Amino acid sequence: MPNPRPRGNSPKSRTRRPYGGLTLGLDLGATKVRAVLVDRTGRVIRSSGRLAHSNDGPANVIKAVVRAARRCLPEGGDALRGAGIAVAAQVDPATGRVRHAPNLRWKNVPLGRILTHELGVQVRVFNDARAATYAEWTLGAGVGCEDLFCLVVGTGVGGSAVVGGRLLEGGTHAAGEVGHLPIVSGGRRCHCPGRGCFEAYVGGWAIAERAREAVRADPRAGRALLLKARGMPGIRAETVFETADAGDPLARRLVTETERYLGDGAVGVVNAFNPSLLILAGGVITGRPELVRGVARAVKQRCQPPAAGVRVVRARFGELAPALGAAALASRPARSAWS
Amino acid sequence: MPNPRPRGNSPKSRTRRPYGGLTLGLDLGATKVRAVLVDRTGRVIRSSGRLAHSNDGPANVIKAVVRAARRCLPEGGDALRGAGIAVAAQVDPATGRVRHAPNLRWKNVPLGRILTHELGVQVRVFNDARAATYAEWTLGAGVGCEDLFCLVVGTGVGGSAVVGGRLLEGGTHAAGEVGHLPIVSGGRRCHCPGRGCFEAYVGGWAIAERAREAVRADPRAGRALLLKARGMPGIRAETVFETADAGDPLARRLVTETERYLGDGAVGVVNAFNPSLLILAGGVITGRPELVRGVARAVKQRCQPPAAGVRVVRARFGELAPALGAAALASRPARSAWS
Questions:
Q1: What's the longest Cα–Cα distance across chain A?
Q2: Distance between alpha carbon A162 and the CA centroid of its chain, in Å?
């Protein structure tokens, strides 16, 4: 990596570093929006974030994105070199359109066009897991690795693979969507058209849903969860982990089951993509080293040898990864963004 | 593809077509060995095959391979341009070593070295699913496609992916081993260290095992299967399909369940690799167009849009694909064999 240097804004320096300079990275998840301003070394200069719930509808969520972005924009003199947004969705990077975002409940939203208009700078659109993978691969836990998989367990579950030194794209830009590996044949309903998906067991929304069902089935056993969450609607994935930490048996059972399902999905990912490095990222993983250790154990015990030799690590950037990756991808010329 | 032309064996023609000429392709599965002699257009000039059971141990199975290969070798004048063997195993293509073949019960067999010695020609070693995929991609159902997955359902279940015009390799040459995607969390034991694997439900051995268990649990309902198979040990995957074709309720239930599990695995493969084309190959699929239709339906209904737009077809070469692919891969220079 080149050393960080203050960027001059004379025409001459522009010619010498056409893809350097400051870049805006945005991240639109199911419950949060985030913006970061990064320099050409990937260092975060400024950041902002806010809650934005998918129930608010596309127009309001986009307003929240624009507000977060504006708070990060550089002052007058510092022209922006590029901007990108990572979305928990299947996107078309060529047109900047969000095709299908189950957890946002969006379909066919021309997000790139709207943001480009609002911010006055071209905003490119990327899948969030792919952006996070790119950040970890080029700046984070996966630097120098040719075969890695980055598994992102947040509200939803996504992922992306680097195989033979290339970020996989797929026929419709959706390779690595391992959140929708069926791990329980005929099992729980997912937000996608499938059943029994990995995400329907370990995604943040699914952990909360499983907990609410368990509490409904046995309200006595669920008392600690209900107290912590101040009522059924307040039960979220964090509530379950925190209540388990405090020793509550029902919450502990839910966490143990989550670990088992996380192992199932990770074993599938490692057997299918055969990475040398498995990077775990996303809100459910952040701050929970025991989940990383559990996945490492499952993979070692249950994967095919020699795929089982994979190294399992936590992401370097945690929840910042998608925004950083969107900035990094946006600072590259369009044609080489995926290689 | 160039037109088929009789190959001259003058030094001049050798110089002009350094990787053309006759190639030997071998296929070592869990229950059969096969040899084909192909010309530079992929046309089969000669073939031979025989049953060889994994219980016979590596030495006897290798003898059977050598016998099948010798029956296909060209006469004196026609020097062989290369030879390759496809094995239902995790292999190291650089050393020709079979690392782990659960269905053959082999570990660390230097197959390439042994066969090279026995046949007097360098024999390169490939994973069978990867070889089959290469055959379908370069000569068969996938010609011209940049993003495809070839799912091979035989005694075991394997697969391989072409993504962005490259056959995926993985950190230890095992990318695409989707037979070991867990599809039933905590489910049936597999021949690998895992549980609930795709292969443990739809591999030929697993269909037979599930049928034997069903017959044991209800011998009355299993009468037709027992009759057809002439006793419990004779029950194989074919027995189940044939007995179901004759209308037997137990066999039909087993086939319906197999179709559901096949759908689960195929949905996982399509969501994970996002191919434009899914090619179904292997002994369990061959001659069963209804299985191909069932997979196409499952994928369309249960995959994430737009990945669900994948086209599902049957392999062109059926059970010949691994041997053809091994020949095709062996006829290329080592460095470009995977691109």
A1: 71
A2: 16
What is the total residue count of chain B? 339
Cis peptide before B322 (omega within 30 of 0): no
- Chain B, 131 to 160: residues with Cβ < 8 Å from chain A are 146-147
d(CA B114, CA B98): 11
pLDDT in tens, A97-123: 999 888 788 999 999 999 999 999 999
Residue B306: phi and psi, rounded to 5, are -90, 10
pLDDT digits (tens, 9 = 90+) for B306-331: 899 999 999 999 888 999 999 999 98
For residue B129, give the nearest of B88, B91, B164 by alpha carbon.
B88
Per-residue pLDDT band for A18 (boundaries 50, 70, 90) equals: very low
- The CA distance from B130 to B140, in Å, is 14
Ramachandran angles phi, psi of A162, nearest 5°: -105, 120
Q: Does domain B11-127 have CATH number 3.60.15.10?
A: no
**Topology of A11-127+321-336 in CATH?**
Nucleotidyltransferase; domain 5 (3.30.420)
User: What ipTM does this complex have?
Assistant: 0.88
Chain A residues lying within 8 Å of B188, measured CB to CB:
none
- Cβ of A182 within 8 Å of Cβ of B304? The answer is no
Chain A residues within 8 A of B265 when measuring between CB atoms: 182
Instruction: State whether B302 and A181 contact (CB < 8 Å).
Output: no
- Where do the structural domains in chain B lie, given as residue ranges? 11-127, 141-315
Q: Does domain B141-315 have CATH number 2.40.30.160?
A: no
Helices and strands: H and E segment counts in chain A: 11, 13
- Edge-first strand order for the sheet with A82-87 is A44-51, A32-38, A23-28, A82-87, A123-127
Question: Residue A194 and residue B304: Cβ atoms within 8 Å?
Answer: yes
B171 lies within 8 A of chain A by CB: yes
Whether A338 shows a pLDDT value over 50: the answer reads no
Distances in whole angstroms, Cα of residue A262 to Cα of each of A206, A322, B66: 12, 21, 45
Query: HEC string of A282-304?
Result: CCCCCCCHHHHHHHHHHHHHHCC
What lies within 8 Å, CB to CB, of A74 at 6+ separation is A22, A37, A45, A46, A80
pLDDT at A77: 53
